[in-house]
Amino acid sequence: MKIATYNVNGIGGRLPVLLRWLALAKPDILCLQELKAPQEKFPENAIRDAGYDVIWHGESRWNGVAILSRVGDIHETRRGLPGDPADEQSRYIEAAVGGILIACIYLPNGNPWPGQKFEYKLKWMARLDAHLKALFDLEAPVIVCGDYNVIPADLDVYKPENWTKDALFAPEARAAYQGYLDQGWTDAIRTLHPGARIYSFWAYWRRSFERGAGIRIDHLLLNTAARKRLSAAGVDTRPRGWERSSDHAPAWIELADRPVRGRKARP
């Protein structure tokens, strides 16, 4: 099973790119972020015509998340991250699909740092930490994926010195992300490619994509049951080079039907 996450940076203007990539890559399950569309403006018919069931949590102008599936019905289990009933931003949706629990997240950017937006980011990350603890020990595979807006380490950025004043690379944000890994969650791409420079975002300016000047902020975290089935992971950079594309590229994993030989749970 191939599962991917893709920040589309506005599904209205990027729909042709998304449909082209779906036809090319054929992910079984896809999580989308930054829809930038209210609930009633989501292109449901186009997605279903492409062969996918879909649920989405829209928001006018900003945010928005969705889950697509071509391998079975989507059974929504949660809409919105618990812990703050007053938070109305559309950043979290969760569903059961084909025996797997999928959580799609769009974590706050947090800039400018320091400031109120960064404080909101840290509070959101703390709420996510609490919810992840409730999900980790489920017997079913659990995948929490999306745009985390966190650069975990120096290896995940082209020039670390250029990001020292950015909320994505702030020590507090990186420490919160490390907290998820300390719970036992597996960063799929880094686990299978421990020393590789793999990026998922390239800014539009200064030919960042062409120069390879990127960052890795789109992550797929796996619980023990999912990690045992992890067989491949990466970033599909092809759509980033297409016209009118998002500044992100899809990150993906493949899960085998049964535990991969030699793949052990973290102690």
Question: Would you summarize the structure shown here?
Answer:
With 267 residues, the protein is an alpha+beta fold.
What number is the mean pLDDT?
96
Based on CA atoms alone, the radius of gyration comes out at 17 Å
Biggest sheet descriptor? 6 strands, mixed
What is the beta-strand fraction? 15-25%
Domain Endonuclease/exonuclease/phosphatase: 4-248
Cofactor: Mg(2+); Mn(2+)
GO molecular function, one term: endonuclease activity
Site (Transition state stabilizer): 149
Q: Which SSEs are present, and which pair or pack?
A:
Elements: E1 2-7, H1 11-25, E2 29-33, H2 44-49, E3 53-57, E4 65-69, E5 75-79, E6 92-97, E7 100-106, H3 116-136, E8 142-147, H4 171-183, E9 186-187, H5 188-192, H6 208-211, E10 218-222, H7 224-227, E11 230-235, E12 251-255
Parallel strand pairs: 1-2, 7-8
Antiparallel strand pairs: 1-12, 2-4, 3-4, 5-6, 6-7, 8-10, 9-10, 11-12
Question: Which key terms come to mind for this protein?
Answer:
Deoxyribonuclease I, Chain A; 6-stranded mixed sheet; 267 residues; single chain; 25% helix; alpha+beta
